[in-house]
Design a protein that fits this description.
The complex is a heterodimer of chains A (90) and B (454).
Chain A lengths: L2 E9 L4 H11 L3 E10 L2 E9 L7 H15 L1 E7 L1 H7 L2
Antiparallel strand pairs in A: 1-3, 1-4, 2-3
Chain B lengths: L3 H13 L3 E9 L9 H16 L2 H12 L3 E8 L2 H5 L6 H18 L3 E8 L6 H16 L3 E9 L3 E3 H17 L11 E5 L20 E8 L1 H9 L6 H30 L3 E5 L1 E2 L9 H8 L9 H17 L10 E2 L7 H8 L5 H7 L7 E7 L4 H18 L3 E8 L7 E3 L6 E3 L9 H4 L4 E2 L9
Parallel strand pairs in B: 1-2, 2-3, 3-4, 4-6, 7-8, 9-10, 11-12
Antiparallel strand pairs in B: 1-7, 4-5, 5-15, 6-12, 13-14
Classes of the chains: A alpha+beta (90), B alpha/beta (454).
């Protein structure tokens, strides 16, 4: 399974999760895990998603999510899972 | 599964602490390009490098996008040109034509440096070696991206003092030839002892003759990450300090290993090594000197500097070595002056001298690096400095290097600006006493007794 980590950081506002999840659902991206906290009014979310069934290229998804982030006023990053696994797991 | 704190930690390292992969360097053997006809040779070199490296930059950028990790430089290292050009080059100008070909193909494939305009002369020079060395000032002044290196000593064979004398003169001539650009040519010229075959870092990278046809070597970097980690253990003892450096170096190196494996897979070129280095840049928060200050020094150069650097270097290696399946290159902490804001500050404050830097090179991965000296420094004095540094490398069985920039028209108290990753530097004073008679003796210094291990 090809897993991707999506991180969303920015000022908290109504509907951030809804907008991101809608985009993912529209593109057949399944959410495997989701965790979220608020640190000093700042919204902090991490999603682990499965990108096996989407028709779009990784670069396109990353770009579209970044644009979606801009429209909500948050920063959305898309990274392949391996960088975190390699760094934090032996 | 990965949790939110681990993800945040990694992204913090990238976004705030300047964690990056400093370079993906594609090593390319040019031995199969050798031809006695100069035109044919240049054609073959161009064709081989272009075909091997045409997708290097794009692949690097693709990996960078997918993992969210900056890959700062994509570079090429080739077989030492003195070996490749020996059959075809009868004059210095012939060698310069190869430098032009390298520069042209570097522009075409989009890499910012190409290394390997080099000669390996630790025991003696062939006619081709000497021609190449003599052509370096011209080659570096008419090209933009070509980097040059000369290996003049090794633990196994001693120090070639004829080459040391010659390279001192060559550094001066290169400074003269590029004086309009503050002698920038010298920033692209390294004199080595025990030069590694698989170093991915410029200006000293070349593709050694012991290597495969093509190879991917990766240099990681992360002084800012180590510095930030150490801020959290202020006042703790050395055990805690060392453990923290090791853990951080492990994490940094794992990223390098991942990028190296990916690049290798996508370019279908075997993975060579990861160079576990702390390579600073002039950016604030990307400084090796700042780590040494965090360890407890007011400025680099204060008493205790050599010990602090020794432990830093050792812990970086210990942490990094388990994170990568193959390590190599220079591996350790780099201490260039112009490329590290903390080092520049130390020089400006009067805390750091050339002599202290020399002591520091005994315990770290490279040598006297990116140091600006007065333009009127004698060639023999430069050769003397090179000889000292080579002796440290030869006796301690380690790589040492000299990258000095005698800035023509400038003197102590003035500053020279190189721009970009090369940074800026205050001109440092050089010991004024003569070593002419020592340098002019000629011949070579025999290999040390501990080289006879057979």
């Amino acid at each position: 399974m090809k897993k991707t980590i999506i991180t969303v950081v920015g000022k908290d506002t109504v509907g951030i999760i809804a907008r991101v999840c809608t985009y993912l659902a529209d593109n057949q991206i399944n959410i495997l895990d989701i965790s979220q906290t608020i640190v000093q009014d700042y919204f902090n979310m991490m999603m682990i998603v499965d990108t096996n069934h989407t028709q779009k290229e990784f670069g396109v998804i990353a770009e579209e999510l970044a644009k979606l982030g801009e429209s909500i006023g948050v920063i959305i990053k898309c990274q392949k899972e391996e960088i975190f696994n390699k760094m934090h797991r032996i | 599964m990965i949790n939110i704190f681990e993800v945040a930690e990694t992204n913090e390292m990238i976004e705030k602490e300047n964690l990056d992969v400093r370079t993906i360097t594609l090593g390319i053997s040019l031995l199969d390009c050798i031809d006695s006809d100069l035109y044919q040779l240049n054609e073959k070199i161009h064709h081989k490098i272009y075909e091997a490296a045409k997708s290097l930059v794009e692949t690097g950028e693709q990996i960078s996008r997918e993992y969210g990790i900056p890959i700062v430089n994509k570079r090429i290292a080739v077989t030492p040109i003195a070996l490749v050009g020996g059959a075809a080059c009868k004059t210095e100008e012939d060698f310069v034509s190869i430098a032009r070909t390298l520069d042209r193909v570097a522009h075409e494939v989009g890499v910012n440096f190409i290394g390997g305009y080099s000669a390996l002369v630790s025991k003696g020079m062939t006619a081709a070696d000497e021609l190449l060395i003599r052509s370096i000032p011209k080659a570096l002044s008419v090209t933009e991206r070509v980097c040059s290196s000369v290996n003049v000593g090794s633990t196994k064979s001693g120090i070639n003092m004829d080459a040391v004398k010659l390279t001192g003169e060559i550094i001066k001539r290169t400074a003269e030839a590029t004086k309009d650009a503050d002698s920038l040519g010298c920033a692209k010229l390294v004199i080595f002892c025990n030069a590694p075959d698989d170093n991915p870092f410029m200006a000293g990278a070349f593709h050694g003759v012991t290597e495969a046809d093509k190879i991917i070597n990766v240099g990681v970097s992360g002084p800012g990450v180590v510095k930030t980690a150490l801020e959290k253990v202020r006042g703790e003892n050395f055990e805690v300090l060392c453990e923290t450096i090791k853990k951080t170096a492990f994490k940094v190196t794992r990223v390098g290993q991942l990028v190296a494996k990916e690049a290798s897979k996508r370019l279908q070129v075997p993975f060579g090594i990861v160079d576990l280095s702390l390579a600073p840049t002039p950016a604030i928060g990307d400084s090796v000197a700042d780590i040494l200050c965090e360890i407890g020094l007011e400025h680099v150069g204060a008493p205790g500097t050599t010990a602090a650097l020794a432990l830093l270097n050792d812990q970086v290696k210990k942490g990094g070595v388990m994170a990568s399946s193959y390590v190599g290159g220079l591996s350790g902490a780099f201490i260039p002056v112009s490329e590290d804001q903390g080092m520049i500050d130390a020089v400006t404050a009067g805390a750091l001298t050339l002599e202290k830097l020399e002591a520091m090179t005994c315990v770290c991965s490279v040598g006297l690096d990116m140091i600006a000296i007065p333009g009127d420094t004698k060639a023999t004095t430069i050769s003397g400095i090179i000889a000292d540094e080579m002796a440290i490398g030869m006796i301690n069985q380690k790589t040492t290097a000299v990258r000095l920039i005698p800035v023509i028209g400038k003197d102590v108290g003035e500053t020279v600006e190189f721009g970009g990753l090369l940074g800026y530097a205050p001109i440092m004073p050089v010991n004024q006493f003569s070593c002419d008679d020592f340098v002019n003796r000629g011949g070579r210094i025999p290999a040390p007794i501990h080289s006879f291990k057979n």
